[in-house]
Amino acid sequence: MTVSGFKGKGLVNSFFQGDDSTGTLVSPEFTLQRRYLSFLIGGGKNAEKLALELHVDGKVVRRATGPNDRAGGTEALAADWWEVTEFRGKQAVLHIVDQAKGGWGHLNVDHVVQTDRKPPGLLKDVRREFTGAGRYLHLPIKNGAPKRVLTLWAEGKVVVRNEVELAPADADWWAPMDVADWAGRALTLQVDALPEDSWGLGAIERSDVIKGGESLYREPLRGQIHFSPRRGWNNDPNGMVFFNGEYHLFFQHNPYGWSWGNMHWGHAVSRDLVRWEELGEALLPDDLGPMFSGSAVVDWKNTSGLGTEAEPPLVLIYTAAGNPTVQCIASSTDGRTFTKFAGNPVLKEITSGNRDPKVMWHEPTQKWVMVLYVTQSGGRHTVHFFTSPNLREWTLASVTEGVAGSNYLHECPDFFELAVDGDATRRKWVLLGANSEYAVGTFDGVRFQPEHSRLPGHRGSGFYAPQTFSDLPAADGRRIQIGWFQTETKGMAFNQSMTLPLELRLVSTSEGPRMTFTPARELEALRVKTHRFDGVTLEAAGGNPLAGIHAEVVELRAEFVPGDRTTVEFLVRGAVVAYDASKQELTVQGTRVLAPLRDGRQRLTIYCDRTGLEVFASEGRVYVPMPFQPGVGDQALSVRTRAGGARFEKLEAHELGSIWSTR
Ligand code: FRU
């Protein structure tokens, strides 16, 4: 994790090629001259094995350690100090000791200073009460500030705990904590440790509108066609499901930080798969741990008993990543409020690396099937298959191994059936991992039989942990996937996003069925202005038909027949997307991928947003997602050919509107 909170360019950090390095760093001798010795310290917490020690007369007279003793936590250094008046005039030596191995087996130290001015103390368990109305408590956040444990109490009961980079002075941004669920009750916020001079707790405001919300969805780095949360960090899409006429997208969310942490399930809904409305958090961390990734199903027959047959429940299946790490369920009949099952967990820990349950109904065996990622000893990646009659009791059915030493089937498995070449009588199962590599095979309700070793999924970067929708209407017949799009947005009050919705298909090839990715047709609704140049032929020295178009967010579609040695090069707001016909190779911002011609033709689709590109080629055989931030002033498009010409049967540029525009 990023180390922060030190002064200047360097610090002492005993994380050397990992946590297992040990040793002691000893300072030169110095004379204690002032009343206080202050310092910055961070890293692991272990008073014996991880310590900054003050030695006087050969004895340890003071000792300090870091703040972290469990997974998660923070690498930030925080101020601490000792009163040393009694040793004034004596010779002293500092030892920085690291005798700890494994998780958090390191210490960070910096900025040791002798001073007569008392450094601000750290107050423990400081509380502030909130009365009155207002849906949100606005927490001031300073990215990289020491993490404080903030506990929210409602009428004497702990509601939720979060680790928050509470701003000591000015805020980088404000994180709204939605307290609507406890309206009218006495609320208390408690901070575990607060520097005496910190402004953070006092600065919290309560109101009904999001602070800084005037520019919501119009921020400079807000993706305009990609979903991102209003505030905070997102990673994996979770619980993707169609329920009561709405697409639901849940997601790994840190509502109170710009980086990963405090995992909640954020929640957004859409009626058209394109425009999303963010709702409040669906799942908050609880005593079983933070809410890690998982899935959702509609329990049509009410097998779980969590709804009725008339009102079938939407059931979320998620990982509570505490110690132990277990699988749990929660349900809802209105798609808005979610109740955690009283009998949680529904699946006990197998190993501490078990997570990300994806569940589906298996019609032939009339059972629920869960695929669960499980790390085995030696770091082996496996997917465990479980079955259940009711989503509450699960039985192990089989185990599928990943490939040793690879990231295949590492986290977030997805498992679904696809028709080959659209022929419903020829169906195959696809098992897919977080990095989007996959295998095609058969499944009998117990065991998955892959027909070959792993195959590559996407060919770009910044695409991870994709998931497909459950319960799309039968008449739809599609398999739609959305991935986590790792688009970093520095300086914004939010970070990361989701990819466009992608339709997955299986097509026959000489090597067997292979998966294709194409942008979901619903995206066409975003086109606001179309420029067509169908039928143009470009020569090497020819002009640029796209000159004169200025578009911030754009979709380009081209179908061209290139000469044998031609390179067709698109410049999209500064991004280079080129196709070299002699090598049958696509290059997206320097990333090269084989992209075969079909009947001498290449079909390219390019989406460009403020935060990334998504490029599709070779009938969906090639999908290249790519985080990218175009220059603000550069809205130009161009296409030209080199080393030959190309005939464009189709060339269209669509200026796109925003998915946020209706709000
Ligand atoms: C993948 C992942 C999952 C886990 C989640 C936690 O990105 O590591 O395995 O459930 O993120 O946020």
How are the secondary structure elements laid out?
Elements: E1 12-13, E2 23-26, E3 30-31, E4 36-43, E5 50-56, E6 59-64, E7 78-83, E8 91-98, E9 107-115, E10 122-130, E11 136-141, E12 148-154, E13 157-164, E14 173-178, E15 187-195, H1 200-203, E16 205-207, E17 232-243, E18 246-254, E19 264-270, E20 277-283, E21 291-298, E22 314-320, E23 326-332, E24 339-340, E25 354-362, E26 367-376, E27 380-388, E28 395-401, E29 414-420, E30 423-432, E31 438-443, E32 448-450, E33 463-468, E34 479-485, E35 494-495, E36 497-498, E37 502-507, E38 514-519, E39 527-532, E40 537-538, E41 554-562, E42 567-572, E43 575-580, E44 585-588, E45 591-594, E46 602-608, E47 612-617, E48 622-627, E49 637-642, E50 646-656
Bound molecules: beta-D-fructofuranose.
The residue ranges in which pLDDT falls below 50 over 5 or more consecutive positions are: none
Q: Note the main sheet.
A: 7 strands, antiparallel
Helical segment count: 1
CATH topology of the largest domain: the name is Tachylectin-2, Chain A
Level of helix content?
A: under 10%
Number of domains: 4
Structural class: mainly beta
Determine the strand fraction and express it as a percent band: over 45%
CATH class of the largest domain: Mainly Beta
- Overall, the morphology is globular
β-strand number: 50
